[in-house]
Amino acid sequence: MEKMKEKPAISKATTKRLSLYLRCLKELNAKNITRIKSSELANLTQVGSATIRRDFSHFGELGRSGYGYNVKDLITVFSGILDTKEEKKIALIGVGNLGQALLKNNFRRNDNLNIVCAFDNDPNKIGQIIDGFLVHDLSELPEVFVKENIQVAISTVPSRYAQEAIDIVVKNGVTAILNFAPDPLNVPENVNIRYIDLTSELQSLIYFDEMVNPS
Ligand code: ATP
């Protein structure tokens, strides 16, 4: 019999909303709020309550009509879905200002997400220890990826160099990439890549805020 996948198949959009719900629910829990209605969560997250109810329906009977949802129960279910169970070893490419901030932070609130190696192409950085990491030349990448069993890569190289950096990462077997640059890159179909563009995130937040809270 085919082995069942542990994680339910949910869309990328739902996954993103789950992590938004989870953040909100943890805040409610910290304030000792024990239950919440979908309409209240809709106000907090700005996700429509019909969408919330549909998202929640993927995960069985989570709520009771008239009662709403138990905050702790939701946290347990959503953390179970989103949290990775095994340690993921991550490589960072581009030890500039943003890259160094990530090395310093290193997802310290999540034990299973660990940046374990860093790469750059600047001769002034290669061979230096920055934030506790030896900066490797890209030519060392194949060897380090195998040795460290790298499964995820984060790129913080400038947009115009991102394609060449990602090509090397992909060539060395990594299929999950977080790219801190907005321009779409060419990657094979089996490679999952997410783009984080802090400027456009901020602009869209401000646009939304000005719409709902006009000055
Ligand atoms: P700094 O001034 O310290 O370089 P920065 O954040 O201003 O920091 P950026 O120009 O954003 O630097 O570049 C980020 C990092 O990416 C730099 O360390 C740069 O050397 C590195 N980098 C650029 N191109 C590549 C590449 N193709 N492969 C790996 N690293 C690269």
TrEMBL record:
* Keyword entries, A-Z: Cytoplasm, DNA-binding, NAD, Repressor, Transcription, Transcription regulation
Report the DNA-binding ranges: 20-59
The primary location reported for this protein is cytoplasm
Annotated residues for binding of NAD(+): G94, V95, G96, N97, L98, G99
User: Which domain of life does this protein belong to?
Assistant: Bacteria
What is its subcellular localisation? Cytoplasm
Note the Pfam families from the entry.
CoA_binding, Put_DNA-bind_N
Q: Which InterPro entries match?
A: CoA-bd, Rex_bacilli-type, Rex_DNA-bd_C_dom, Tscrpt_rep_Rex
Q: Does the keyword Nucleus apply?
A: no
- All copies of the CoA-binding domain together span 83-184
Q: Spell out the HAMAP family in the cross-references.
A: Rex (MF_01131)
Q: Which family does it belong to?
A: Belongs to the transcriptional regulatory Rex family.
How this chain assembles, per its entry, is:
Homodimer.
What does the record give as the function of this protein? Modulates transcription in response to changes in cellular NADH/NAD(+) redox state.
Question: What is this protein identified as?
Answer: Redox-sensing transcriptional repressor Rex
